[in-house]
Structures are given as structure tokens and as C-alpha cells.
């Protein structure tokens, strides 16, 4: 039998058609997953109930631990940095809350698909539901610590100005990054389980090199390099409007650039490897 030779243009057309179908399926998955946000919210609430089953305070244990850290570290580091306690304490409270949220989001992102293995194997749900589930779960847990910031502000006599509303834009960027990281790290860690340990170690390093306990002004002229740190940029879009009279333009630009970059990379990986997630978990 004669061998059929397929022209290169035909092969390219078939390949491009397959790529186009993958993009369409990925977009359909995103649309269906976001449309079922109530299901993701219900699953997130179930996760929280299961995690804190038998606990008296539940998610408020994290609020209590953060309050103890703010009180203990605030007194010590305000003396070390020679800063007024009423000035340093609100900065530290917002910093720790935002950092704990970012750290928990990144670490939890590694298991966004692995933790949903049973559902993925048994029910034909959009994969984005599981990424949205972990985002809402961490958002609910973080919301339990918001009263702590209010208490610290009242004690220290801090009143955020009208620019504090920009913190909502910072939170929106944080949510977008959390969703993108959940898709990206969820797929990578489902394929390579060792990545989660690497991510945990990297977050420990970022805690010390990011201005969480210390202020950027302590770096003096070297603080111009801080926007290269994505954690700092995203943190400052929330912290700046609340305790520092706003964030600079370069901070917002860098945060937007990191958000677009994270979403682009996550969507590209989702388009390419979406069909393999069920086999990896």
C-alpha cells in the first residue's frame, strides 16, 4: 500500500485546529467554573468545617495567634527599630494579616487539585471550580482576622483617609493572583509532588526579604529595588492605602504587571495541560 504523505501545511492546520479547540475548552471551563461559584463557596465552607471540626474557636485560632504575634513582636521590634509603638503597631498588624493570607494562598495552591482528587475522578466538574474553591476558602479564613485590624487602629488612634478605598483594588489584584497561582501551582504540583516542599521553603525565605516586620525606609537608597519583589508589590497595594497614605505609582504598575504575567502563564499552562489534570491527581 502506498504511503500517504500529508503536506506540511495540512499538518500545521490540523495542529492549529487542535490548539484552537484546547483554547475553547479552557475558556468554557473558566466560564462554567466561575458561573458555579456558589458550589465552590459551599465546598470551601465544607473544607473549613472539616478542618476545624472539634475546635472551639475554629478559624479564630489564626486571629488569636496573629494578635499574640502583633502584641509580642510589636513591642520588641518597635524598640529595636526605635519607632513609636502607635505608629509601628498598625503597620505590623496589616503586614502580618496580608502576609499570612499571601503565604497561605501560595502554599494551599499546591494542593488545589490534589486535595480534590476524589471529586475530580468521580464528577465531571470544571477544573476551575477547585481553584476557585481554594481561593474562597482562604478568603473566608482571612476575613476572620479583619476585626483585629479594626481593634489595633482604634487602640492606636489611626484613622485611614479616603485613599483607603484603594485597598479594595489591592485585594482584587490579590484575588486574581490567587486564582492564577491556584491553577498554575495546582497543575505543577499535581505532576511533580516535590514542588510543594520547594514552594514552602521559598515562602519562608520571602518572609525575611520582604518588608513584613521591617519598614522599606530602613533600606534607604536600596528600597528602589523592592518593587522587583512581587510579594512586596501586592502587599503594598493593600497596606499602603491603609497605613501609609497610599502606594506609589511604581508599586501599582509592578503589581499590575505581575498580575497580568501570572494570569497569562496560568492560562497558557491550563490550555496546554488541562486534559491531563485528571491523570495527574
How many E strands?
A: 0
Which stretches are poorly predicted, pLDDT < 50 over at least 5 residues?
Answer: 8-17
Mean pLDDT: 84
Q: Report the major sheet.
A: none
Question: Helix and strand layout, with pairings?
Answer:
Elements: H1 8-35, H2 37-51, H3 60-80, H4 85-109, H5 117-122, H6 128-143, H7 146-156, H8 166-191, H9 195-209, H10 230-243, H11 249-273, H12 277-280
Helix pairs in contact: 1-6, 1-11, 2-6, 3-4, 4-6, 4-7, 4-8, 4-9, 4-10, 6-8, 8-10, 8-11, 10-11
Structure notes:
The longest helix is centred in the N-terminal third of the chain and has 28 residues, at 8-35. The protein has helices at residues 8-35, 37-51, 60-80, 85-109, 117-122, 128-143, 146-156, 166-191, 195-209, 230-243, 249-273, 277-280. It has one domain (29-46, 69-280). It is an all-alpha fold.
Amino acid at each position: 500500500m502506498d504511503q500517504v504523505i500529508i503536506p506540511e501545511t495540512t499538518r500545521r492546520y490540523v495542529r492549529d485546529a487542535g490548539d484552537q479547540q484546547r483554547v475553547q475548552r479552557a475558556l468554557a471551563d473558566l466560564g462554567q467554573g466561575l458561573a458555579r461559584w456558589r458550589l465552590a463557596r459551599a465546598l470551601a465552607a465544607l473544607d473549613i468545617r472539616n478542618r476545624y471540626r472539634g475546635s472551639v474557636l475554629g478559624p479564630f485560632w489564626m486571629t488569636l495567634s496573629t494578635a499574640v504575634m502583633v502584641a509580642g513582636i510589636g513591642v520588641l521590634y518597635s524598640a529595636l527599630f526605635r519607632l513609636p509603638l502607635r505608629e509601628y503597631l498598625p503597620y505590623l498588624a496589616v503586614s502580618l494579616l496580608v502576609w499570612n493570607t499571601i503565604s497561605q494562598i501560595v502554599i494551599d495552591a499546591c494542593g488545589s487539585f490534589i486535595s480534590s482528587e476524589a471529586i475530580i475522578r468521580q464528577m465531571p466538574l470544571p477544573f476551575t471550580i477547585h481553584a476557585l474553591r481554594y481561593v474562597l476558602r482562604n478568603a473566608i479564613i482571612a476575613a476572620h482576622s479583619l476585626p483585629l485590624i479594626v481593634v489595633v487602629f482604634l487602640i492606636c488612634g489611626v484613622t485611614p483617609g479616603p485613599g483607603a478605598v484603594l485597598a479594595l483594588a489591592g485585594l482584587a489584584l490579590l484575588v486574581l493572583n490567587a486564582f492564577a497561582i491556584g491553577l498554575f501551582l495546582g497543575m505543577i504540583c499535581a505532576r511533580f509532588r516535590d514542588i510543594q516542599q520547594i514552594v514552602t521553603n521559598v515562602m519562608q525565605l520571602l518572609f525575611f526579604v520582604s518588608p513584613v516586620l521591617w519598614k522599606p525606609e530602613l533600606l534607604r537608597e536600596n528600597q528602589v529595588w523592592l518593587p522587583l519583589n512581587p510579594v512586596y508589590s501586592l502587599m503594598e497595594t493593600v497596606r499602603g492605602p491603609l497605613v501609609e497614605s497610599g502606594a506609589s505609582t511604581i508599586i501599582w504598575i509592578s503589581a499590575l504587571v505581575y498580575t497580568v504575567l501570572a494570569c497569562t502563564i496560568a492560562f497558557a499552562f491550563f490550555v496546554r495541560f488541562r486534559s491531563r489534570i485528571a491523570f495527574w491527581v
